[in-house]
Amino acid sequence: MKHSKIALLVSAALFASFGANAASTDNTATVNQAGNTNLATVTQTDESVDNIATIDQVGNGNAAHATQARTSDTTATISQTGNDNLGTVDQMDATETSTASIDTIGNENKAYITQQLNNADSASAAIIQVGDENTATIVQDNADGAVSTITQNSSGDTATINNHWSDNATATISQNTGSDNHGTIYQESSDSATASLTQTGGANTGTINQETGNFSHDLGTDDTLATLSQDGQGNDATINQNAMHNMASVEQNGDGNFATVTQNGESNASTVMQTGTGHSADITQNDLSNLANVTQTGSGNGLTLTQEGSDFGTGNTASVSQNGDNDTASLSQNGNSNQVVIAQNTSSHDNNISVTQSGTLNYAGAATELGGGSSITITQAGTNNSVKNNANANNYYGADIGAGTYGANNTLVISQSGSDNTAYADASHDNSSVDIAQSGEFNDATVESWFGSDNDLYVSQTGDHHLADVYVVGGSMNAVSVTQTDSYNTANVTSSGSNNLVTVTQGTM
């Protein structure tokens, strides 16, 4: 092979240097350059044993730098094809058994790998860039066993991986086919952390931050895992893991979607899958053992979820499925073992569901179908309160759904405080409202506006062991008001037709 003058001079200098240094044995440096104005620099110094550095450049104006100092069994390989590419590998100090490789095809690509200080044993870093004007950075500092891989196969992509003080950490960024993607993974003090980010499409932004504050450096001490995958255009996703034993997965298929998962406690799990356009999901998990599963299809749906106040093994659970357009859900869970199920189906649009639960073992299930402009608001404080199927109700919306709207511009409001209260509310067709307020213990309310419009139903129960069953079917402009205090009152109301008025008052006022 034809060698440039620069390559020959570098090889000769390296040979002379290694021969004069007795501590530096069995080192090999090979530089091959074809083209014009290329620059290659290889430095292997001090107690570097069995090191190999290879640089191959084809094209013009390329520059490659490999530095290995005070290391043993270290390998650095740079291969560049095209023009004006820059590759730098820096392995220094006590970096044993490290392997770094940069492979670039195209023009004006940049790649940086740094492995330094006490990064011993099995650290490895690899960068492959195909296309033009890509930038990739890998930093592994004192990260024993860390493996970082960046692959970019198009143009204008930017990727950064940072493994610092991260034993057994693995970080992978893959950005393919599309262009102008930005991927970032930070792993700080995160033993056993694993992060993978894949973006296919263009102009996507993905960020994974793992900061556990763990300094024990023992395998399996935090087991943190994060996976992020985006396919489409202009998606933005962020995963923040600030404690141990968390798992987070975000997948977005479509355009203009946004997702953020923040885990500040331990043993939390969150899965977000968004398909379509313009969705947003913001999930925050504090404290312990919370679980969130979110699926959004259609377009323009939005979710805000906060889970906190839980103990280990008794975390809160949220399951959200929004399949229509421009539906929103806001959920807050504070306490132990609270559960929420939200379902807004494909024919639902511009509806809102809000659930707030504090206490223990509360359950809320809510759904919207057909039409838009409806809202469901559920507030529960205490223990064992539930909004779900009821033996006295139609239970139209599916298993364990206790608050539902079918049609447009309906309003459901449920408020429960105390313990062991149950509620079921339904407003089908248009412009109806159902309001249930219960405080005390063992109260049960079933309130339905079934196949009617412009109905107004209200139930208030204060005390213990009250029962209210209100069923309005057909017609319009009906009004029902039930108020019960003290204990053990029962109200059964059935109304059919239009323009009916019912008022029930029982107990001490």
Layout of SSEs?
Elements: H1 5-20, E1 28-34, E2 39-45, E3 52-58, E4 63-69, E5 75-81, E6 86-91, E7 99-105, E8 110-116, E9 124-130, E10 135-141, E11 147-152, E12 158-164, E13 170-176, E14 182-188, E15 194-202, E16 205-211, E17 225-233, E18 236-241, E19 247-255, E20 258-263, E21 269-277, E22 280-285, E23 291-296, E24 302-308, E25 317-322, E26 328-336, E27 339-344, E28 348-349, E29 352-360, E30 363-369, E31 371-372, E32 375-383, E33 386-387, E34 403-406, E35 411-419, E36 422-428, E37 433-441, E38 444-450, E39 456-464, E40 467-473, E41 479-484, E42 490-496, E43 501-506
Parallel strand pairs: 1-3, 2-4, 3-5, 4-6, 5-7, 6-8, 7-9, 8-10, 9-11, 10-12, 11-13, 12-14, 13-15, 14-16, 15-17, 16-18, 17-19, 18-20, 19-21, 20-22, 21-23, 22-24, 23-25, 24-26, 25-27, 26-29, 27-30, 28-31, 29-32, 30-33, 30-34, 32-35, 33-36, 34-36, 35-37, 36-38, 37-39, 38-40, 39-41, 40-42, ...
